[in-house]
Design goal:
It contains 1 helix and 9 strands; from the N terminus they run ββββαβββββ. The strands form 2 sheets. Strands 3, 4, 7, 8 and 9 form a 5-stranded antiparallel sheet that branches. The chain has a 4-stranded antiparallel sheet with strand order 1-2-6-5, with no helix packed on it. Strand 7 and strand 8 form a beta hairpin. It is elongated.
Length: 103
Amino acid sequence: VAPTTPVCEVPSSAMTGTVVQMSCKETEGSPPSEYQWYRNGVALLEKTGTGSARAANITYTMNKKSGTLLFNTVTKNDTGEYFCEASNGIGLSQKCSVKRMQV
């Protein structure tokens, strides 16, 4: 079953240095969807155990299975327009509407 449009939860504003968690979920897709977050139209990298994430100064953890995007300490650089995309390899992937977070 192709995924439906996911529901994204993105705070409209956040204080610098606080923890922010965004969520993305859709329930129709079978097999279960994987989720990809975007900021300002650019796919966010998944943080892995390699040095590339640290080199890129990534301050978040993205879980493709659960759809969560967690910032341990947000910075002004994290301000932007966020959306996520659900895909499970069947039918078209679905995106939620873009939401802006101001830090």
